[in-house]
Amino acid sequence: MTPVESQGTPYVKPPVAASAPAILAVEDLKVWYPIHSGLFLRHVGDVKAVDGVSFSVREGETLGLVGESGCGKTTVGKAILRLVPITSGKVLFRQKDGNVVDLAPLSRSEMRPHRAEVQMIYQDPYSSLNPRWTVGDIVAEPLLVAQPDLPVKQRDERVAWLLEKVGLTGEQAYRYPHEFSGGQRQRIGIARALSTSPRLLIADEPVSALDVSIQAQVLNLLQDLQEEFGLTYLFVAHDLSVVEHISHRIAVMYLGHVVEVGPAQDVYHAPLHPYTRALLSAVPLPDPELERAQRTQLHGEIPSPLRKPSGCPFRTRCPLAEDACVSYVPKLVEVAPGRLLACPVVARTGG
Questions:
Q1: Mean pLDDT lowest for which of 51-60, 75-84, 289-298?
Q2: How far is CA 14 from CA 188, 243, 248, 292, 340, in A?
Q3: 326: which DSSP letter?
Q4: What whole-number distance in Å separates Cα of residue 70 and Cα of residue 82?
Q5: Where are the domains of the chain?
Q6: Around Cβ 50, how many Cβ atoms within 10 Å?
Q7: Are residues 93 and 101 in contact, defined by beta-carbon separation less than 8 angstroms?
Q8: Domain made up of 19-257: CATH architecture
Q9: Are 201 and 231 in contact (CB under 8 A)?
Q10: What's the half-sphere exposure (Cβ side, CA atoms, 13 Å) at 304?
């Protein structure tokens, strides 16, 4: 049961046509952090946080990006916004005029014009807001960068309007972040992200730091805003029940790789990849009297991104691993309409 369902608030996802154009296409994205050691700081290795990730997000869609801690999902979101350096790959963003621009090679100054259309909602509502600024200043900051010539009166009116859109009041613009609860602070963060009228929002675990009842309110708010403004979400999270509830499609990550992509209902109720099955079997059941027909248990710890296994990154914990899994990293292939899988064993045998 998701937090929203526990509040008795049904939600029907707005349909997204399969022919809808992709607003974002990530191709073979790699984010490696070099490791230097010794007196002369020689390059001795790389932490491969993201290692060849590819996916696309259609306009008006919510793509859930899930995986356990350390898999690289947050790094993917930050790389799209160029908040971390990209080692290689493409981040193709479709602008309002239909032109497609690759964000990956852009410098900081070249990236600035595109930031208005791509914004981020951060995980921690306590550390993501400047405690020395008023709420009005926090929400208005992106406007000062994107529209420096906007008159002060219009800027203040837009700040008040945005605060009302996220369930606060215009009068609260003169208060400071410490005067608000965690849920209210996250609403302020959402208002800040919306200030430049973006088309794509990257939500980095936006409800994980909140109580369950507050999670429901924030999720409902995100869904209402998506429907009202036609937003596209990349929803990064580890709570699969929340992701299944809010997302149209789900992409599952493991150790810097995407291992499965598909419609949310299909991935959640009929997972294909052994890792996805293990991830879903760990989701708590709402009724303690119920027992699972079969639980997938993984043995061992997730390998370090600094010393990844050869071949398939999941092979050291996979119950279906074969000798051939050592030889190559499996590619995502379409095994059914809309279902992408990076496991040739399941593709060949059906799991």
A1: 289-298
A2: 25, 15, 9, 32, 23
A3: G
A4: 19
A5: 19-257, 270-285+292-349
A6: 28
A7: yes
A8: 3-Layer(aba) Sandwich (3.40)
A9: yes
A10: 6
> pTM of this prediction?
0.90
Beta strands at 333-336 and 62-66: parallel, antiparallel or unpaired: unpaired
* Contact between 192 and 141 (Cβ < 8 Å): yes
Report yes or no: 288 and 294 within 8 Å, Cβ to Cβ: no
Tokens of 51: 């290692």
How many angstroms separate the CA atoms of 43 and 35, rounded? 6
71: tokens are 């898999």
Q: What are 345's two structure tokens?
A: 């064993």
Residue 235 CA neighbour count, 13 Å, CB half: 29
Instruction: Tokens for 263, please give them.
Output: 């419609």
On whether the CB atoms of residues 159 and 144 are closer than 8 A, the answer is no
Phi, psi for residue 342 in degrees, rounded to 5 = -110, 60
Structural contact between residues 268 and 64, judged by C-beta atoms closer than 8 angstroms? no
Give the chain's end-to-end CA distance (angstroms, integer). 27
Give tens-digit pLDDT for 67-112. 988 899 999 999 999 999 999 999 999 999 889 999 999 998 899 8
